[in-house]
Amino acid sequence: MQEAFEYKVDLKLKNILIIMPKFYAYQTKIHDDLIARGANVTFYDEEPERGKFLVLNRLSKIFKTQDFFAKFNKQLTANIIAQMPAGGYDYFLVIRGNILSEETVNTIKEKALKKDAKTVYYSWDSLKNVKHQGELGKLFDHRATFDSVDAKNNPDFELIPLFYSDEFDGDKVEKPEEYKYDYVSVSAFFPFRYRYFKAFKKANPDKKLALKLYLAPSVYRGKKFTDPKLVKDLDMDIVSFTPFSPETIREMCISSKAVLDLATENQPGLTMRTMETLGIKRKLVTNNIYLRDYEFYNESNEIVLEDLCEKADAAEASGDYSAFVLPDAAWLDKPYVENEAERKKYSIHAWLDNLLR
């Protein structure tokens, strides 16, 4: 019988205000977990009109100003104050906060929170990739990041990696009688991923691979003009113009012996897919060299690939793709080494406990 998670933070009847961007369905996972714990949760989307915000984001970079988001910040602040619960919020959580102003944060703290409220900032992006470069986090009681390098360079930011939700909890997932794939990888289209996926496909004809990249039709049309060579004669066994649902991705990962995860190059933080792979107790092959720094890293379960760009250059020049041969049955079929105490530290329940403690 599955043991109930032992929560460290009592959130029953606590009023929690969250401002964050919608990121696949992860905001729903966070919301639902807090509700299940008895909290009252109010969520505000940091980017309610995605297309409009992309345009404003480009303009703000060109003109080096946040003024383009002033109207949004003003309206957001007014809505939060008008809709706040009686007495105010007990917790104020901001995730990323890419376009929030200091004035917005300070006004919310002054007018929408209880006097003893806890304020928490979390970045699930590298600080160099957000407009405020982490400065916004200084307005909060507790600051955390998923990026190990940012945590090392900013001691006031605690390292709290991402999480796996209950749908990826290996104790709640039925093990398949027979695995459909040896390796699965499903993610967004980036040129580097497409290049490496083609190399892996050439080097591993003996393995059952499901390497899939979603390329939005609008991006494809744009690339036809800006980078026509990239999108000419696309391998449609790899590329899909239709997005993969979270349920489809989950089923593919569960049906595979291992997951191949290619993080954005030079990204120190562990991806959500890494956490989900840990959750379902599947083996992992990744290009994230920082994985070795984590306590759960075990060569029997995880393999780190290095210098893929240089290897791809050499392979394309010589036609020899042996550097992209993935581990075979000797590693794939070796029993997964379990450490339940460490694995559970990365569940969504533990993640929220760490943030809101």
Walk me through what this model shows:
The mean pLDDT is 92. β1 (15-20), α1 (26-36) and β2 form a beta-alpha-beta unit. The protein is built from 14 helices and twelve strands. It has two domains: 15-160, Rossmann fold (3-Layer(aba) Sandwich), CATH 3.40.50; 167-345, Rossmann fold (3-Layer(aba) Sandwich). The two termini are 28 Å apart. It is globular and about 65 Å long. Helices cover 36% and strands 18% of the residues. α3 (70-83) packs parallel to α4 and α6 (191-203) crosses α11. It has helices at residues 26-36, 50-63, 70-83, 102-111, 148-153, 191-203, 217-226, 228-231, 246-254, 272-279, 308-318, 329-332, 340-343, 348-356, and strands at residues 15-20, 40-45, 89-95, 113-123, 142-145, 158-159, 181-188, 209-214, 239-240, 256-261, 283-286, 302-304. The chain has a six-stranded parallel β-sheet, with helices on both faces. The longest helix has 14 residues, at 50-63. The protein is an alpha/beta fold and 357 residues long.
* Radius of gyration, CA atoms, in whole angstroms: 22 Å
Number of domains: 2
In whole angstroms, the N-to-C terminal distance is: 28 Å
Q: Which percent band covers the strand fraction?
A: 15-25%
CATH topology of the largest domain: Rossmann fold
Mean pLDDT: 92
In spatial order, strands of the major sheet run 2-1-3-4-5-6
Instruction: Characterize the main sheet.
Output: 6 strands, parallel
Q: Summarize the helix and strand pattern as letters.
A: EHEHHEHEEHEEHEHHEHEHEEHHHH
The tally of strands reads 12
CATH class group of the largest domain: Alpha Beta
> So, CATH architecture of the largest domain?
3-Layer(aba) Sandwich
